[in-house]
Every structure is written in C-alpha cells, then in structure tokens.
Amino acid sequence: MVRKYERMSGRQSWNEEEMAKAVAAVVSGKMGYKLAARTFHIPRSTLQRRASKVRYQQPDEPKPLMGHYRRVFTENQEKDLVGYIKSMEKYFMGVSRRDIRELAFQYAEDNNLNHPFDVNTRMAGEDWVRNFLKRNPELLHKSEKDYELEPVNFDQFYHFMCQSS
Q1: C-alpha neighbours within 13 Å on the C-beta side of residue 145
Q2: For residue 64, which of 47, 104, 143, 162 sits 20 to 30 Å off, Cα-Cα?
Q3: What residue ranges of the chain have pLDDT lower than 50?
Q4: How far is CA 118 from the centre of its chain?
Q5: Whole-angstrom Cα distance, residue 26 to residue 78?
C-alpha cells in the first residue's frame, strides 16, 4: 500500500445503511429499482444483485477488497506469523522490522504463496511490514517488564534453533 494513499474512484461511495433501506423498499414493493437507486444514491446494478439475494435467501459472500492491493497471507497465516514472532521475541529479546520482512518472505516461499515481495533481497517491502504492524499492534506495544533482562536458558535456545533449521 502506498504511504499517502488518496482514493481516486467513486466506487462504493454509498453506505450499508442506505443500501439496506433501498433493498427493503424494493423487496417490499414500495419502489422500483430505478427510483430506489436515485433516491438512496446507490448503483442500480448493485441494488438489483442485493435485492435478488434477499428475495432468494442466498447468503452474502465476503466483501471484496477494493483497489489494486491484496493481502498476501490469510488471517490464520498471519496469526501463525505473529505467534512465531512472539516466540522469537521471547527467546531473543526482540525482533527488528528487517527480521519480520525476511520472515514474511520465507513464510510465503515455504507455503508456495503468490506474493509481491522482492526476490533479489528476499524480503517483504517496507509498506507491507508497516501495514502488518498496524494490523497486529500487539507486536508494537511493550511494557517495561518486557525490557527487563532475564537469564537465557541455553538448552531451550539450542532446542529452538534446531527446530527452526
């Protein structure tokens, strides 16, 4: 995602409340498609699709993402990535943004995911890691207790390193 994104299109400029009112008006027979679309300022084709789903009781599909950008990992994969980063922080006293970028690239490669990451540097982009940290703020906020030095158990450290290799 671009750092200073300004939306250029007027696509999906309507809100869900207005759409629900328009669908209710069309399904109840109070208005036709054209009149409801003009009254509630929504696209007629979208109103037709939504009204037919209500009439025929079809479940709503997940909301499509807007724009050119797409997420690389599913929510479960991101949770796995966050858990792995937290466990690394537990053993190594912190992970840098660069480490997260390298880890994301490696995770995408290991799972054979289609990704836009740089193959030459073998890292995810700076924008990706910034948005990843926005989606997972628990990785940013650390209490004073987290910064206290604790003795490292080298057996656990060695076992962890052998597992990750």
Answers
A1: 0
A2: 104
A3: 62, 143-147
A4: 20
A5: 41
Q: How far is CA 28 from the centre of its chain?
A: 37
Structure tokens at 9: 């299109």
Quote the CA–CA distance of 161 and 120 in Å, as a whole number.
25
Structure tokens at 72: 């690389």
Buried b (16+ CB within 10 A) or exposed e, 119-148: eeeebbbeebbeebeeebeebeeeeeeeee
pTM: 0.51
- Between the alpha carbon of residue 141 and those of residues 26, 56, 132, the distances in Å are 48, 47, 14
Distance CA 153, CA 149 (A): 12
Tokens matching residue 143: 């209490």
How many Å apart are CA 100 and CA 92, to the nearest integer? 13
